[in-house]
Amino acid sequence: MTEEARFPAAPLGDFVARAFIAAGLPQRDAQAVAGLMVEADLRGSDTHGVIRLPLYVRRLRAGGINAKPNIRLISNRASVALLDGDNGMGHLVMRRAAELAIEKAKTTGIGWVGARMSNHAGPAALYVTMPLAHDMIGLYFAVGSNNHLPPWGGSEGLLGTNPMAVAVPALEELPIVLDMAPTVAAYGKVRLKAQRGEAMPVGWMIDRQGKPLTDPKRADEGHLLPIGDYKGYGLSLIIALLAGALNRAAVGREVIDFVKETGKATNTGQAVMALSIEAFMPPAEFKKAVDGFIRDIRHSQRLPGVEHIWLPGEQSHAKNLDRRAHGIPMPKALRESLDAVARELKIAALP
Which residue, 176, 99, 185, 113, is CA-closest to 144? Predict the structure, then answer.
């Protein structure tokens, strides 16, 4: 198996589903989570897709994730609701949250659904794009599953790579899909660098003395850096309040490192919002305006040496097309980790 090997999405999804079933998930839930994880890889979110399978399996087997949760409403009003995920797989919790937000937005124009007692759910883009099919704008916020970001000027990790995402539909152009963390790099990218034996760029992390840290295997000795200095710190704080504190989920010192403490519930907090465009104007009119703005940006004057001005979501779309046609890249280290899962669970490995 070479570094450039590709693997079709369908059999990869079947393997992931079989692994989850062997780890205790009901078949329907296993297939749903597997589908979302493979979709993450198709979009190019390599750090948040199938690469997470070994960790999820460890957490399921250690009791850190409830394989058969009772995901339930604990607060429900016309436009807002709060879900308790009963420590289930985060993908299942957030899929339900997004579906509920969409249903509320159809009635009232807006739906905001928070979640507590959830878990890591993969990339935010999976859920923020669900409202697009209903002529809605999607927003997403989540508390990271470990703390790698200190307050600006501090040296204690009290904040996470708390992601946020926004998806806006267009008419003829691709939708705008912004999926970002308030840190220069997501911690998953640090792990990916370590897995591949590559150094991190200067500017991703600093050590506890504030000096650049480029060895990903020493990541525990340092902290991630926020985007825009104090502005990224402030953004991470606000996301933690909206997705965590508001939902009675873990924030700050309450956050459990889901990698190091596989047997503990994380009480991860997330939130998703669906906003109906029809509540403001005819959707086609809005999407036509989005098209026009996209084209203005794409064809605007470029700096010397710049061949293309990208819009948020364009590169993910290009990767999606390529990977559906030619398969998902399967680096040797990832293949070996999936083979190890197959041996551990006594299931057939990938062919």
Answer: 185
Nearest Cα neighbor of 4 from 325, 350, 331, 341 is 331
Q: Longest Cα pair distance anywhere in the chain, in angstroms? A: 57
Close Cβ partners of 311 (under 8 Å, ≥ 6 residues apart): 173, 174, 176, 294, 297, 298
φ and ψ at 57, to 5 degrees? -65, -40
Q: Look at the pTM and tell me if it is higher than 0.70.
A: yes
The tens digit of pLDDT for each residue in 187-221 reads: 878 988 887 889 999 999 999 888 999 999 999 88
Cα angle vertex 255, ends 211, 240, to 5°? 85
Buried b (16+ CB within 10 A) or exposed e, 165-186: bbbbbbbebbbbbbbbbbbbbb
In this predicted model, what pLDDT tens digit does every residue of 82-136 receive, in sequence order? 999 999 999 999 999 999 999 999 999 999 999 999 999 999 999 999 999 999 9
Question: Please, which residues have CB within 8 angstroms of residue 114's CB and are 6 or more apart in sequence?
Answer: 80, 81, 82, 83, 97, 243, 246, 247, 269, 270, 271
Question: How are strands ordered across the β-sheet holding 222-224?
Answer: 212-213, 205-207, 222-224
Which secondary structure element, helix H or strand E, spans residue 75, and what is its range? strand 72-76
Paired tokens of 47: 């750090």
* Secondary structure letter of residue 131 according to DSSP: G
